[in-house]
Amino acid sequence: MSLAHGRPYLAIPGPSVMPDRVLQAMHRAAPNIYEGALVDMVAGMVPDLARVARTEGNVAIYIANGHGAWEAALANTVAPGEKVLVCATGRFGHGWAEMGEAMGIEIELLDFGRKTPIDAQAVKEALEADGAQAIKAVLAVHVDTSSSLRSDIAEIRRALDETGHPALLMADCIASLGCDVFEMDLWGADVTVTGSQKGLMVPPGLAFLFFSERAAEVRRAMPRVSRYWDWAPRADPAFFYQYFGGTAPTHHLYGLRAALDMIHEEGLEAIWARHATLARAIWAAAEVWGEGGPLTLNVAEPRHRSHAVTALRLGTPHGARLREWTDRQAGVTLGIGLGMSEEGDPDGRGFFRFGHMGHVNAHMVLGLLGTVEAGLSALGIPHGRGGVAAAAEVIAGSEPRRG
Ligand SMILES: *Cc1c(COP(=O)(O)O)cnc(C)c1O
Q1: Which of 142, 203, 290, 350 is the right S-S partner for 176, CB 3.0 to 4.6 Å?
Q2: What CATH architecture does domain 9-16+267-396 belong to?
Q3: 355 CB under 6 A from ligand 1?
Q4: In 3D, which of 332, 321, 401, 317 has the Cα closest to residue 365?
Q5: pLDDT digits (tens, 9 = 90+) for 103-161
Q6: Does the predicted TM-score (pTM) go above 0.90?
């Protein structure tokens, strides 16, 4: 017997759950892309998008996924042969470095492993060692979705300011925007990259770049920027065709309009608080389970954990078996371990992840945790009793009770 029939829950860290309101907004006939309602809608939408990143800077929208956003950020600011400093706390930091390498950019890599966030002191030392100021940008992933580590972008800004180094600060907020607190202007990021399919609750296919005046100046001094990635023609939605480098992503834009309405109706602070509480509920359950078995949270320190995604380790063969069980028996799809190879487990099959970004509420998280607890029991995987009860206590607003 399978208990999976009913509404499925894709609890992977992107693409995330899409609200019915977003889907319904997309369900319509093709609009005119040259004038009229769609053009007006986008012009009005850009400031609402910028508010999610907490910036008064520039916005560029691409038909692309997160990898496109990575490439766009570099294509506008760093020429082949120039250098960037990449801070890696998991697979996505390395991925951005590989993207730069493929573009002929020289990479200096600071690898912080998969357990600890970016150490701003190490960034400062790398900048101090760069006497010629050859480093053109510091690339930092705010939340690395593979490890679920969250790093402190404001601290990296301080490292740049204290050394007086002119490098741009670029933040990958693909996983974190609209989930974890992020303040682009206050924290001093020059470029922020994100995508539509995580905290923004829209299908994959839109990439967003937010950039400061300083970054725009660096762009203007570039010898050449490839046409599609050039952000300059994308700065004015009045020129609609150029704005999207061709045909507009019409239906994604309707979906995005609906998602931004939802975000601003709830309020960004309330969204951050919701994600924080749901994340604490997940940690509470995981900590109880771990008291009686092999389950561990990948990030030991709560203040370094993302509120959008949680990476957990069960070891082999339990991790893969649990994912298989929740999918087949309960209609809940968990995220795979990504870039989490370890000795005896080259594919990271002992790891799994919960995506809790965007359109996620208390009953979904309690359902997710209840399903995992059932799976642990069904598969005979040792675990502490009472994980879901501990999560329910967090949801109820009190500290989790033990024992
Ligand atoms: C999802 C993600 C990416 C990659 O985005 P794609 O849309 O898969 O290209 C990059 N960085 C982070 C932090 C992500 O979470």
Answers
A1: 142
A2: Alpha-Beta Complex (3.90)
A3: no
A4: 332
A5: 999 999 999 999 999 999 999 999 999 999 999 999 999 999 999 999 999 999 999 99
A6: yes
